[in-house]
Amino acid sequence: ALAGAAAATGVAVAMADAQAPAATPSDASGEQASALQQLHEWLQSQGADVSKVQAKPSQAGPGAGLGLFATAPASAPRPGTPWWSWLWPRRGAPALPEPVTLASFPLAAAITLRTACSDPQLGEQFSWMVDKQLLDERTAVMVYLLIEKLRGDKSRFAPWIRTLPRSFDVPITFAPTDLAELRGTALQGAAAAVTRRLRDTWSRLEAPLRNLTRELGLPAPTWEDWLWAYCVFWSRGQSLPVPESGSASSALIGHSSGNGSDKIPIQILEGLVPGLDFCNHRHSPQPQCWWEVVVPERPKTAAPTCPVKDGPMVRLQLHAGGTARAGDELYISYGDKSNEELLMLYGFALEKNPHDHLMLFCPLPPQAEWDDVMYARIELLQAYGLRPQFFLPHPDQVAAPAAGKPVKGAAAAGKKKGSSAAAPSPAAAVGEGGAAAADDTTPPLVLPGEVLDTLEVFVLNFQELSVRSKTLQAKMEERRAARAAGTPLEAVTQHSPVLDLASLRSRYPGMGLAELRHSLQSMGLRMATITTFIRLLELKVVDLEGSEGTGSLEADEELLRSLDQATSAPLLAAPSGAPAAAATQQREEQQQRQRRLRAALVYRMGQKQLARAWLVRAKAELRGLMAVMREMQARQEALERAGQQ
Question: Are 221 and 213 in contact (CB under 8 A)?
Fold first, then answer.
């Protein structure tokens, strides 16, 4: 939850790093400028310090909405000792410089469960529903936001709500034609599943909310209102780590230090922070800003119940060594998110996203058809803490277990324009006649440990599954006993040791017969594992690029180029005599279709590239493994014949 605190921050439809021409932030329309001025004044009235920032149309790209901009230059010193310190040496370690704060927003002005439960009209109802577990914390925040929207100008948050987007580019809001652009991807099924869950929740909430709004004299809420509140929360919400006193970063350092006396209690609040939520995401170059919750220090002599003068603040701060010029848009990071997460939550996808991943499922028969072996597989998976699915980053980013860093040469191969390792042709990826089209320059296959564990569970026979289960149970008992005795043990290694084919090829001529047999048995398991992996990848490639998918990667690349050219060209003019409002709506709908198509293209292209890259390496690995096994089997047969003579 703490790791997700910074990751969940941001605006719904930021298009950071977009290749399309950037929007000009300087001039908002008269109506929008008035709304932004009212927002600025409202934030100040709530106790926010926004003297150094201003909300304006974002530069992040089409569809990015509003962003937060610096109105004055600022810079933060780099950590460390200044160059002149040798002239005036000080005793002890240098103190860390105070973070440079660009803006601060009171936690009391955020929409959280605390806000809902302290509402003069609704507080008792919210407290009762949460106590009875009818609402969880996040749903309570969404429901309260929905009610504040229905309150209109009477809402305490009206100036902020008026500046929020009315539509979103996330898949759960896609029209069927837009959703068809995600065929064959994991996101297609995820969007359908989330929509079903949302409708189930709405069917449970609709009647009570209608009764509640009737009592308040408000309009009846609709499905569209509920969907809007959901999208606002997930695209702009934060998990706020609130320490008992001091800054959240200092409190987290105390928790990680292992010193019990330094640990400051931290409470995680889910909520929306008006003002901070206008900060957009940027991956490259690094964002200038980050945020944290700061609670005024309580005097040591004060009683625990003694109130502090000022309440908790959410501060927007410059990173150490960061600078911001007047007029610069201020960016934060949503975290190391894949395009799947970015598109699902925020409505955009990044080209060449280093955090992208490919999700693979291990197909399971209906539970009614499970036999003892399948039950044993599932039980072992659960004992490992795994599921019959896994996530694959780009193969260049998987660290070799022995070296602890990416395989030498892998990153270079992946960066070459047109490299077969980065984006091989369909024939190279899927293979013709079962042969891989990779050459000897293909980097070695290194599977993440949890992927190897999952795959091996599905190729072990019943006896091997039983042995693994008993071994794991014994190791867990040892760890429990060691933990009780206060003697830590190393982490349990679940998967088989990595097989280095080059090392095996050089060592097997000196192996005895028993060692050869053992090595061949291990290699047989690895061959079955890689074969299963290849089959899953081939099915994924067919899902993505086959007749039920969205076509080849090359076709997507051409479509993206055409779309970018069309986006840079002037939009189609409305028919002469058409009303201005209708023309504006038509233009906005055309822009929205282009944004959604582009985001879907960038996302699904990344999925196809990952599937192809892994498939090429897996097939090359299998070919090399089979070649070494043939040589070792020949050596084994020679030794057996020699022993019989």
Answer: yes
Centre a 10 Å sphere on the Cβ of residue 499 and count the other Cβ atoms it contains: 16
* Cα–Cα distance for residue pair 56/328, rounded to 1 Å: 11
**Cβ proximity of 223 and 1 under 8 Å:** no
Tokens for 140, please give them: 């309570």
Compute how many other C-beta atoms are within 10 angstroms of the C-beta atom of residue 187. Answer: 23
Q: Mean pLDDT of all residues in the chain?
A: 83
pLDDT digits (tens, 9 = 90+) for 430-453: 444 333 344 557 888 999 989 999
Tokens at 526, concatenated: 């690895």
The amino acid at residue 325 is R
- The whole-angstrom distance between residue 423's C-alpha and the CA centroid of its chain comes to 23
As given in the structure block, the two tokens for residue 312 are: 């908790």
Give which of 263, 265, 312, 322 is closest to 290, Cα–Cα.
322
Q: What is the tens place of the pLDDT at every residue in 606-630?
A: 999 999 999 999 999 999 999 999 9
**For the residues of 318-352, what is the DSSP string, one character each?**
EPTT-EE-TTPBPEE---S--HHHHHHHTS---TT
Reduced to 3 states (helix: H, G, I; strand: E, B; else coil), residue 573 is coil
How does pLDDT run across 577-612, given as a tens digit for each residue?
667 778 888 888 899 999 999 999 999 999 999 999
For 359-373, write each residue's pLDDT tens digit.
999 999 999 999 999
